[in-house]
C-alpha cells in the first residue's frame, strides 16, 4: 500500500455517459499526476497539478476530459460523453521525496460498453 | 521526444534462474531512470531508481546500473522467485526545479517464474 487511494476501483459505463474518478494522494505531497494505461502498454501522462494549479495537460487529454484539484488535496478526473476508446486503467500518482518519486494508487479500471 | 524501449515479453523462467530485462532510452539532458513493478490486480510500485550516470539502483535483490554511454538501464536479479512474477516497467523522468517530472514508460515486460 503506497498510501494513495483511488475510487472507484472499477467502473462500467455505457457509451455517452459521464464518469468521474477520485484520487486521494499522500497528504504532504503537493504534486499529483494522472496517467492512462491501456492493455499491453505502459502508462501515459495525462496531466499534473502542483497544489491546486493544473500546470500541464497532454495532447491525449481531449476537451471531453477535465481534472480538478480543489484546495490542493484530492483530485477528480471527469470524462464526458464517454467513448469505447476511453476504456483503460486510470492511474493517479502522488509525488514527493528528494528526487520527486511517484507513488501510484491502485488505479480505476474503466470499461465503456 | 523522450522514449523508453524495453525487452519484449513475455519472459518465463524457472525459480532460481538469472533474470535480465533490457531497457534503453532516448532523452535529452540527464534523466532519472526507474524500474516499476506491477503485481496482478495492483498499482505500480517503485522497485529501484538511479538519478545520475554510473549510479546503481538496488532493491529486493534486483539491481540496475545507469549507463549513459549506452543509454541503458537493464534490470537484473541473480535468482528469481515465484513471487517475482509481475509486469516490469522501465521509465524515465526529466526535470529540475519547478518543471514537470512526468514519467515516460516502456511497454512493460511480463515475467512468469515457475516453481
Labels describing this entry:
heterodimer; A: 113 residues; mainly beta; 7-stranded mixed beta sheet; 4-stranded antiparallel beta sheet; 52% strand; B: 115 residues; 6-stranded mixed beta sheet; 12 strands; 50% strand
Task: Describe the SSE topology.
The complex is a heterodimer of chains A (113) and B (115).
Chain A: E1 5-7, E2 10-13, E3 19-24, E4 31-37, E5 44-50, E6 53-57, E7 65-68, E8 75-79, E9 88-96, E10 101-104, E11 108-112
Parallel strand pairs in A: 2-11
Antiparallel strand pairs in A: 1-3, 3-8, 4-5, 4-9, 5-6, 7-8, 9-10, 9-11
Chain B: E1 3-6, E2 11-14, E3 19-21, E4 23-26, E5 32-38, E6 44-50, E7 56-59, E8 62-65, E9 75-77, E10 86-93, E11 103-105, E12 109-114
Parallel strand pairs in B: 2-12
Antiparallel strand pairs in B: 1-4, 3-9, 5-6, 5-10, 7-8, 8-9, 10-11, 10-12
Amino acid at each position: 500500500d503506497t498510501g494513495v487511494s483511488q475510487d472507484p476501483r472499477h467502473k462500467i459505463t455505457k457509451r455517452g455517459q459521464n464518469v468521474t474518478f477520485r484520487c486521494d494522494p499522500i497528504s504532504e505531497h503537493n504534486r499529483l499526476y494522472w496517467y492512462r494505461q491501456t492493455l499491453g502498454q505502459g502508462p501515459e501522462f495525462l496531466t499534473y497539478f502542483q497544489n491546486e494549479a493544473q500546470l500541464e495537460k497532454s495532447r491525449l487529454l481531449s476537451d471531453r476530459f477535465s481534472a480538478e484539484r480543489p484546495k490542493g488535496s484530492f483530485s477528480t478526473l471527469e470524462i464526458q460523453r464517454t467513448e469505447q476508446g476511453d476504456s483503460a486503467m486510470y492511474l493517479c500518482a502522488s509525488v514527493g521525496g528528494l528526487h520527486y518519486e511517484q507513488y501510484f494508487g491502485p488505479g480505476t479500471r474503466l470499461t465503456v460498453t | 521526444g523522450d522514449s523508453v524501449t524495453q525487452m519484449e515479453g513475455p519472459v518465463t523462467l524457472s525459480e532460481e534462474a538469472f533474470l535480465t530485462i533490457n531497457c534503453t532510452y532516448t532523452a535529452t539532458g540527464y534523466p532519472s531512470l526507474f524500474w516499476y513493478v506491477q503485481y496482478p490486480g495492483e498499482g505500480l510500485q517503485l522497485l529501484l531508481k538511479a538519478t545520475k550516470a554510473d549510479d546503481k539502483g538496488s532493491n529486493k535483490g534486483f539491481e540496475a546500473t545507469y549507463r549513459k554511454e549506452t543509454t541503458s538501464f537493464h534490470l537484473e536479479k541473480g535468482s528469481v522467485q515465484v513471487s517475482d512474477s509481475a509486469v516490469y516497467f522501465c521509465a524515465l523522468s526529466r526535470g529540475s526545479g519547478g518543471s514537470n517530472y512526468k514519467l515516460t514508460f516502456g511497454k512493460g515486460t511480463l515475467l512468469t517464474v515457475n516453481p
